[in-house]
Structure prediction request, 244 residues.
Amino acid sequence: MRNVIVTGASRGLGLAIASALAASGYRVLAVARSPTDELRALIAAAAQAGRGAVQFHAFDLLEIPAMAAFVSRLRQEAGPIYGLVNNAGLGTAGVLAMMRDEQIETLIRLNTLSPIVLTRHVARSMMSERTGRIVNISSIVATTGYQALSVYSATKASLIGFTHSLARELGQLGITVNAVAPGFVDTEMTRDLDAKQREQIIRRSALRRLPEPADVAAAVEFLLSEQARNITGTTLTVDAGNTA
Prediction:
């Protein structure tokens, strides 16, 4: 059973990704600071289904110096790591001129620095196996922008540049690196949008709806699969045609 790390797996997109991958037969190493009732239910359901598995591993992704030991422990407990889904992130909104330094630093630390360092440690494991899949969860705002999301947009744009260059570095070793850029998905991160904002987004989308977490999870599942073995260095947009 192939091991796939999914960060931020306790809720929202991460939970949907973990669910889809477990259903496809992967062993999901679900990383979050603490489990939720929804994640506990998924762990139990996966065990009962007898196909795939979900294991919870507590870790604070802001604790960057502890990442090397954490990844080493995962390898010892679960075995080689086949996939990494860098999903965890903060969606803190705020007009730049009014944001505090510590808010900006936390966003950049969790959304950009943390996945880069985690990927470094996991990629070393993949390099020894000469196979692997890395998927970075970005966002359409990385290229379109959005009011009061300048810092968040910057962090998500950084993941796209990271994806392109790392794909070049790791490709000769049989490791693919791709990004998924969701649109405004109906999760906790978008619930701060008021009804007018949501309606504007829906009206602007070619399909006149918001994508669901399961749609993003399906894209991640595809990029981890053998069908995507010759796809690397690309960004797959899942936004119901918002940027069409």
Residues 103 and 198 are 25 Å apart (CA to CA). Helices lie at 12-23, 37-49, 67-78, 101-129, 141-144, 150-170, 195-204, 213-224.
